[in-house]
């Protein structure tokens, strides 16, 4: 069975850049790929292995400065909780961003002590420290996209909403994390109201799984028709696009996107037989933010993100005693 996600749209598809045409970042290339890149010969390279005479420094420095190669990457900010076991939360976000070709930055909302079998303890970040993290990032390297994950308390949500508004954040991908795969509750009941009231209206897209979409829409989701109706309801209620993910369904892993202009797009994916799904939601949302930062439209970003996630599941990494993490680096092995 092939597991490449397929996209079906109910309106004519939009144009966007092809990712396959994009070269991987140089440090991920193999030797023959990187050997084909143009090289700059700096003054320092010419002197390799030989001690430099003092008299040669001044011309050498000017020569080197004139020829320094500069490069840049779109930067993406993850605002999420730390997962000590590395498979979900901030750790999954940063690994995903690196693998998807953007520069990942972090504002940590909570420290969790967890592994693949459960969550032992949670310490929320003090709101002023969270505000400082967001400020320091935006003041220096303004992100092109922002991914928001675990936000467990109202005061944390308030500060995120206020700071992101202040900094005119764009391309906000919000994964409304409620319950961990291991079963632990990761948000308080009163924080759900703050999340939907303050952060949903700012989001470009929200990405609930089926149980989360049921809570957010007060409906039962039994089939794909219900998933699509829930996605529409979220768009109507909160004015942002909504991707309802089918990972918790019983058949294929199909996700549905409803956009504010009424467009509905299904992203079909065959269910992969892999019990290690810790961090799938974190990974998908970070990949969507990464591809938005790289210039994709929302449907294209989701298509590429799902392809990345599918590959990570197909790699069949098997770590830990519970539902384990995925191989975020699968593309480069
Ligand atoms: N077994 C699977 N095979 C293929 N795709 C899957 C599988 N499980 C989940 N997915 C995909 O993973 C993505 C995340 O969906 P899921 O419903 O698991 O989110 P989630 O529950 O928020 O994740 P998390 O485990 O981080 O809480 C979706 O694109 C979904 O279709
Ligand atoms: C810090 C943090 N953020 C998010 C999740 C959800 O991921 P999952 O549902 O796969 O456990 C998690 N377990 N921990």
Explain this structure to me?
The chain has a domain at 73-223 and 271-313: Ribokinase (UDP-N-acetylmuramoyl-L-alanine:D-glutamate ligase), CATH 3.40.1190.20. Helix 5 (127-140) runs parallel beside helix 6. With 333 residues, the protein is of the alpha/beta class. The radius of gyration is 22 Å and the shape is globular. The longest helix is centred in the C-terminal third of the chain and has 17 residues, at 298-314. The chain has helices at 31-35, 43-46, 57-67, 89-99, 127-140, 154-166, 189-199, 210-217, 224-238, 280-293, 298-314, and strands at residues 6-9, 75-83, 103-115, 118-124, 145-148, 172-174, 205-206, 241-244, 255-258, 264-268. Bound molecules: adenosine-5'-triphosphate (ATP) and (4-amino-2-methylpyrimidin-5-yl)methyl dihydrogen phosphate. Adenosine-5'-triphosphate is lined by residues 88, 181, 209, 245-248, 253, 255, 269, 271-272, 274, 277, 279-282, 284, 306, 309-310, 313.
CATH superfamily of the domain at 73-223 and 271-313: Ribokinase
CATH first level of the domain at 73-223 and 271-313 = Alpha Beta
The helix/strand class is: alpha/beta
Terminal Cα span = 22 Å
The largest sheet is: 10 strands, mixed
The shape is globular
- List how many beta strands DSSP finds: 10
Uncertain runs? 12-60
Fraction of residues in H or I helices: 25-40%
Mean pLDDT: 86
- Radius of gyration over all CA atoms, rounded: 22 Å
Percent range for β-strand residues: 15-25%
CATH topology title of the domain at 73-223 and 271-313: UDP-N-acetylmuramoyl-L-alanine:D-glutamate ligase
Q: Strand order of the main beta sheet, please?
A: 1-10-9-8-7-6-5-2-3-4
Order of helices and strands: EHHHEHEEHEHEHEHHEEEHH
Distinct bound molecules: adenosine-5'-triphosphate, (4-amino-2-methylpyrimidin-5-yl)methyl dihydrogen phosphate
In DSSP terms, counting alpha (H) and pi (I) runs of 4 or more, how many helices?
11
The assigned CATH architecture of the domain at 73-223 and 271-313 is 3-Layer(aba) Sandwich
């Amino acid at each position: 069975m092939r597991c490449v996600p397929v996209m079906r749209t109910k309106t004519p598809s939009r144009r966007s850049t092809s990712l396959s045409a994009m070269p991987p970042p140089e440090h991920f290339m193999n030797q023959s790929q990187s050997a084909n890149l143009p090289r700059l010969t700096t003054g320092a390279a010419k002197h390799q292995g030989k001690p430099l005479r003092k008299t040669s420094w001044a011309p050498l420095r000017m020569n080197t400065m004139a020829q320094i190669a500069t490069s840049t990457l779109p930067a993406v900010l993850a605002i999420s909780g730390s997962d000590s076991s590395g498979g979900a939360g901030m750790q999954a976000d940063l690994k995903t961003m690196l693998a998807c070709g953007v520069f990942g930055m972090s504002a940590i909302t909570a420290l969790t002590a967890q592994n693949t079998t459960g969550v032992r303890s949670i310490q929320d970040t003090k709101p002023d420290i969270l505000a400082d993290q967001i400020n320091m990032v935006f003041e220096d390297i303004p992100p092109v996209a922002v991914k928001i994950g675990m936000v467990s308390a109202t005061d944390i949500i308030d500060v995120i909403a206020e700071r992101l508004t202040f900094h005119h954040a764009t391309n906000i991908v919000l994964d409304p994390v409620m319950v961990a795969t291991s079963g632990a509750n990761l948000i308080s009941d009163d924080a759900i109201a703050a999340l939907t009231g303050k952060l949903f209206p700012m989001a470009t897209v929200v990405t609930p799984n089926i149980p989360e979409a049921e809570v957010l829409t007060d409906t039962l989701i039994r089939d794909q028709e219900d998933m699509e109706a829930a996605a529409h309801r979220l768009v109507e209620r909160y004015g942002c696009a909504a991707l309802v993910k089918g990972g918790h369904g019983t058949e294929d892993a199909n996700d549905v996107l409803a956009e504010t202009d009424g467009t509905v797009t299904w992203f079909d994916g065959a269910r992969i037989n892999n019990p290690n799904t810790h961090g799938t939601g974190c990974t998908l949302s970070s990949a969507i933010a990464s591809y938005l930062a790289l210039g994709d439209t929302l449907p294209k970003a989701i298509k590429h993100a799902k392809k990345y996630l599918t590959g990570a599941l197909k790699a069949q990494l098997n770590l830990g005693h519970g539902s384990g993490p995925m191989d975020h680096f699968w593309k480069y092995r």
